[in-house]
Amino acid sequence: MGRDGAAGLVGLAGSVVLLWGTLQLPKSPLVPIGPAFYPRILFTVAAGLSILLIVSDLLRRRSPAAQEARYRLVILAFLIFGGYVFLLSPLGYRTSTFLFAFTLQAVIDPPRGPGRWLFVLAVALATTAVTYYAFEVYLYVLLPRGWMTGF
Amino acid sequence: MLSQLFASLAEVSQLKFLLPLIIGTWAGLIGGAIPGVTITMTIILVLPFTFGLDPLQGLAAMTGVYVGGCAGGLVTAALLGIPGTPAAIATTFDGFPMARKGEPGRAVWLGTWASFFGGLLGAVFLIGLTLPLARFALRFGPWEFFSLFIFALSMVAGLTEQSLLKGFISGIIGLAITVIGSDPIMGTPRLDFGSEFLGGGFQFLPVLIGVFAFAQIMTDLEKAGDSRHLDAQTSPDLSVSHPAVVWEILRRPVLLVWSTLVGILIGVLPAIGSSAANVMAYDQAKKISRHPEKFGTGIPEGIIAAESSNNANVGGSLVTIMAFGIPGDAVTAVMLGAMIIHGIQPGPLFIIQQPRVAYGIFAAYILAHPVMMILQWVGARFYLRIVTVPRAILFPVVLVLCTVGAFALNNTVDNVYALLIFGVLGYLMVKFGFPLAPLILGVILGDEIEKNLIRALMTDPDPWLFLTRPISGVLIALSAGSIALALWQHRRTQARLARIEPEAETDF
Q1: Same domain flag for A47 and A77
Q2: Is A88:B413 a contact under the CB 8 Å cutoff?
Q3: A window 64-103, beta carbon within 8 A of B
Q4: Cβ contact B56:B357 at 8 Å
Q5: Which residues pair with B53 in a beta bridge?
Q6: Which of B57, B166, B170, B471 could form a disulfide with B53 if both were Cys (CB 3.0 to 4.6 A apart)?
Q7: Contacts of B400 in chain A (CB under 8 A)
Q8: Are B53 and B265 in contact (CB under 8 A)?
Q9: Do B165 and A49 touch (CB under 8 A)?
């Protein structure tokens, strides 16, 4: 089975789980059509399309595998962003944004020499300061405060 | 109509509205010039800055981004041979050869002036068509709206470059995202599996930002070795005789009007975006030309056709958004989202009930063109320098802005979690070959599709009314037709590939 087949299986599993979820929904006492009506149509169609995707994948001739991309950097970037998202609440916007901007720069283009490290540090500080002042001070967006840091 | 338009032009000319328009156009020009930062992403990045503004100020900024973005792509397309946005792909065909022949100023300014004229001709259609179409749409009941939304979705899913099946699955995923949370009729919680996070449902802005920004940035990161930065290959002299360039365009009125019409028509139709307008207008120009063999060698006709069509396309897209409330592609879906965030519900009642804002958008669209010209004149060389910003700096900054944009929507970290979830989903979908435009359209239209379906069935439970009511029936027939056409095209392509493949194999 190829990538399409795997995607179809995930789609089918998701549709079945959500279709099961609609069975738990209460019937509406006021209107004849309840909250489950439309989702049931949707997930039935989704399940059908997923099955079609699996079948079409099984029937298709295999083409040579595509060139390998550099997924290591992508996975690292997702992990760093995930860390940023989860640190927003405990550390607050300013600290977590600085750490995120610094780390991601260093990972995408590893600095060589103290001058480059200083540059990365300056960009991280500038990103944090400019976005903080633009949104918090000028646009009145109350950015997250950290429950650990207090700011 | 004209008196309202002049009043709106006077209103938007005030500094209060002009300033956001200028900043938006400037941001659009820069975003459009940077390869890898599309117009869609630029609109997404600018949107949070407009949250606190008056709706017309915010929409003036957004319109500026849209117009500026379409024109911005031409600078890198002509000077570096890299289209800043997909809407400038065909501009590279003749713009880059012309610049390499030692006429970079002529290439950039032919494109800029063609964008200006194409955009203004697009404005004539925008202003002339929106009200009559909106009046026509007033005849629509829930059956017709349901069928219209299904038609838009089927067009977008059917005309995707990848498989038709994946286009539909992508659209269904978009619709499925909207059913999580409370149902739009009675507000009953559904499919939240007891989670407070899921109970609130997903707002479409974090979904849009996550899906688009991550799909683009992470795909770029895969090629980090060769795309960390673009070196400015030249420091070109862009000085040119403007009257001569304007005359070069105006002495080809058929080419200009025809390319503009192609752009408008493609803009009005759901599903086909400005990149298609750009390429199709170029192709049309080649077909009607007396010397088609010269296309691709750096001739003005290629640049005029490509650039006038992509800016006219913006006008056509705005007609569809404002009259029917349906977006044509990913960029217009984000524009529609921006309108909704600013408290505007585009659709047939919009221009009738809120003429000040509607005509304000027309006025902003018209004024964005001279603003774009001035900003291009002042900063074209500066935009060229911006594209050399290393990706290691650009990506963290863009992701921080995405995070703030998602958070600022209603000051909750839940939106940032949603951003991460949909970022992963968007990237995986791209890697598995699923198009993103149908997903976005599904997210934007999902609630309206459900509401209109339920309203129609609660008014009259007879489902055949979707087929027997004339307008609804025509729209359903068009949906079926677009699917059949897409299937036929797909089979034809497969058959052609099957014929080519054995020949290719014999080479080895």
Answers
A1: no
A2: yes
A3: 69-71, 73-74, 77-78, 81-82, 84-85, 88-89, 97, 100-101
A4: yes
A5: none
A6: B57
A7: 97, 100-101, 127-128, 131
A8: no
A9: yes
Whether residue A28 is found in the same domain as residue A55: yes
- Least Cα distance to B34 among B80, B76, B93, B88 occurs for B76
Same domain, A53 and A108: no
- Span of A106-110, B166-170, B334-338, B372-376 with lowest mean pLDDT: B334-338
Q: Please answer whether residues B151 and B324 qualify as being in contact, where contact means their C-beta atoms are separated by less than 8 angstroms.
A: no
Q: Mind listing the pLDDT tens digit for each residue in B231-240? A: 444 567 778 8
- The answer to whether residue A23 neighbours chain B at the CB level (below 8 Å) is no
Tell me: do A133 and A77 sit in the same domain.
yes
A151 within domain boundaries: no
- What pLDDT, on a 0 to 100 scale, did the predictor assign at position B229? 45
Q: A142 contacts in B (CB within 8 Å)?
A: 411
Q: Where residue B151 falls among pLDDT bands split at 50, 70, 90?
A: confident
| Predicted-complex ipTM score | 0.92
* Residues B316, B325: Cα–Cα separation, whole Å: 13
Residue A53 has pLDDT above 70, yes or no: yes
Token pair for residue B212? Answer: 């688009």
Residue to test with chain B: of A37, A57, A85, most B Cβ within 10 A = A85
- Say which residue, B338 or B363, is predicted with more confidence: B363
CB-nearest to B432 from A3, A37, A71 is A3
Chain B residues closer than 8 Å to A31 by CB? 185-186, 454, 458
Number of domains in chain A: 2
Beta strands in B18-154 (DSSP E): none
Q: Is A8 within a domain?
A: yes
Asked whether residue A115 is assigned to any structural domain, the reply reads: yes
Could you tell me the residue range of the domain that residue A8 belongs to?
A: 3-59
Residues in chain A closer than 8 A to B217 (CB atoms):
77
- Residue holding tokens 């690292």? A76
E strand or H helix that includes residue B190? strand B189-190
Same domain, A82 and A130: yes
Chain A closest-CA separation from residue B302 CA (Å): 34
Is a pLDDT exceeding 90 seen at residue A33?
A: no
% pLDDT > 90, chain B: 22
Mean pLDDT of A113-118: 91
Nearest by CB to residue A85, choosing from B228, B396, B416, is B416
- Residues B400, B474: Cα–Cα separation, whole Å: 46
Size of interface A-B (CB pairs under 8 A): 166
Residue B389: list chain A partners with CB under 8 A: none
* Phi-psi group of B183: left, alpha or beta (phi > 0 → left; psi -120 to 50 → alpha; rest → beta): beta
Q: Which residues pair with B190 in a beta bridge?
A: B181
More confident residue, B92 or A119: A119
Domain endpoint, select from A16, A35, A59: A59
Residues 6 or more apart whose CB falls under 8 angstroms from that of B334 comprise: B40, B43, B44, B47, B208, B212, B327, B440
Comparing alpha-carbon positions, the chain B residue that sits nearest to A56 is B165
Lookup: tokens for B157: 């899913």
Per DSSP, the three-state class of B507 is coil
Distance between B332 CA and the closest CA of chain A, angstroms: 25
Q: Is residue A110 part of a domain?
A: yes
Indicate if A53 and A96 belong to the same structural domain.
Answer: no
